[in-house]
Amino acid sequence: MTTVLVTGATGFVGSALCRKLCDLDYDVIAFHRYSSTIDQIEKLPLRRMIGDLLEDGALENVFSQKPDIVIHLAAQHVSGRNASRLLDVNVGGTRRILQASFNSSVKRVIFMSSALTMGTAEPAADFKSEPMPVTESHQWNNQLASWPFARSKHLAEQEIQWASAYGLDVVTLNPMTITGAGDHYRKLTSLIARYQRTPPAYSIAGGINLIDVQDVVQGIVNAIQYGEKGKRYLLGGTNLSYSELFRILSEMTGAELPGMQLPSGLSNRLFDFKIKNLDFFSTGSDGTDLLQLAGKYLYFDGRNSRLALRLSPPRDIRQSIKETLEWFEQNL
After folding, report:
1. Which of 201, 214, 192 is nearest to 331 (CA)?
2. Which residues contact 279 (CB under 8 A, 6 or more apart)?
3. Domain carrying residue 125
4. What is the domain-level CATH number for residue 284?
5. Angle at CA 253, nearest 5°, toward 252 and 255?
6. Which DSSP string do the residues of 64-107 spell out, in sequence order?
7. Is 157 helix (H, G, I), strand (E, B) or coil?
8. What CA–CA distances, in Å, run from 3 to 16, 18, 28, 57, 109?
9. Count of the separate structural domains present in the chain
10. Which one-letter DSSP state was computed for residue 24?
11. Which stretch of DSSP H or E encloses residue 175?
C-alpha cells in the first residue's frame, strides 16, 4: 500500500483530499497543527500527526513514518500585520519539507502553489476587449509583487527549482480561486461568503477564475500518477468578470446587485491607503479585497494541463457556487 503524507490536512483542500485518498485505499498520514479544526477528517481511516512546519523535530517525527508520496498543501494565506510568518511558513516551511523528503528518499512531492505565480492576463491589443487568459507558458511578471501571498508562493517555487536541480521528484500544481462546500477556515473572509452576508456597495472592473475543490482534488490525485517530474500544471476552472460573478451571486442570494462600478485607479489607491493604515482598516491581504482586485484580470486557461493530467472538463461553476453558498449558510 502506498503511504501518502498530506500537510495542511485539515484545510479546505486538504480535508477533501484526505477523504478522496482514503476512498482510493491509500495509507494516509494527515499532518496538521495543534490548533487545527479536525471535524472534516476526524472519522476518516487515517493517521493524524500533530506538529508545526517550523517546529524543530516535528518533521523528523512525521518522516520517520517513511511516506512514499508527500503532498504539501500547508500554507499561510493572510499576512495582515505578520508578513514574516507568511514567508516563514510558505517559503521556509516548503524548504524544510523538500529537505526532509530528499533525506527520506520520498518518491514524489506534489507542491500546491498558486496560479498567481504565473501573473495576470496581459491587456488586449485594442485595450477594449477582455485580455487573453494566462497559460502554462507565462512566467511571473511582477504585477502581483505587492500581494504577499502571491510573492511568497513565487519564492516557494524557487525552492522547488533548487530541489528539482538536486534530483528530487517534484510536481507543482497552480490552482486559481477554489470554491465548493467545506471551506471552514474562510467562512467569514471568502469573497462568496462576504457577498452572502453583506453584498458590496460597488462593483469593480476585472475578472477571476473559479475552480471547484473536487476538480483540484482530482488534479492532485492524477498528478501522483501522470504528473511529469519538474513540471508545473495550471488548474483552472471558469473565467468570470466580477460583473458576471456578482450577477450570479445576486440571483442565488436575492441580494441587490451593486449599482456602481468604482474606477480601477481610485480603487487601487484606496487599497494602498488601507495597507498603510492597518490599525484602522482590515483588509483581505490574501487577494480577496475588492479594492485590491480592481482592474486585474485573473483569467487562466489550463486546458493543456488538463490534457496532460487526464482530467475531465471543470465542473459547472454555477453549481459549485450554489453548493458553496448553501454550505456557508448552514455553517455560519
Report:
1. 192
2. none
3. 3-331
4. 3.40.50.720
5. 125
6. TT--SEEEE-------TT-HHHHHIIIIIIHHHHHHHHHHTT-S
7. helix
8. 17, 12, 6, 21, 12
9. 1
10. T
11. strand 170-175
Give the residue from 222, 234, 223 showing the smallest Cα distance to 300: 234
pLDDT at 285: 44
Q: For position 320, what pLDDT does the model report? A: 96
Q: Tell me, what's the pLDDT at 275? A: 47
Residue 132 has what DSSP assignment?
A: P
pLDDT profile of the chain (332 residues), mean per 10: 96 97 98 90 94 90 96 83 82 96 97 92 64 85 77 95 96 96 83 84 86 98 97 96 93 87 59 49 51 80 96 96 92 78
The candidate with the shortest Cα–Cα distance to 239, out of 176, 289, 195, is 176
184-187, long-range: CB < 8 A, 24+ apart: 184/12, 184/37, 184/39, 184/40, 184/331, 185/11, 185/12, 185/37, 186/12, 187/328, 187/331, 187/332
How far, in whole angstroms, is CA 118 from its chain's centroid? 13
pLDDT at residue 121, as a whole number: 81
Q: Which residues contact 113 (CB under 8 A, 6 or more apart)?
A: 153, 156, 157, 160, 172, 173, 174, 232
* Number of Cβ atoms within 10 Å of the Cβ of 184: 16
Q: Identify the sign of the CA torsion 254, 177, 285, 220.
A: positive
Helix, strand, coil abundance in the chain, percent, nearest 5: 40, 15, 45
Distance CA 149, CA 145 (A): 9
Q: Is the dihedral of CA 237, 180, 158, 229 positive or negative?
A: negative
Which helix (H) or strand (E) element contains residue 204? strand 203-204
Q: At 118, list the grid cell.
A: 504565473
* Beta-bridge partner residues of 108: 69
Largest CA distance in the chain: 57
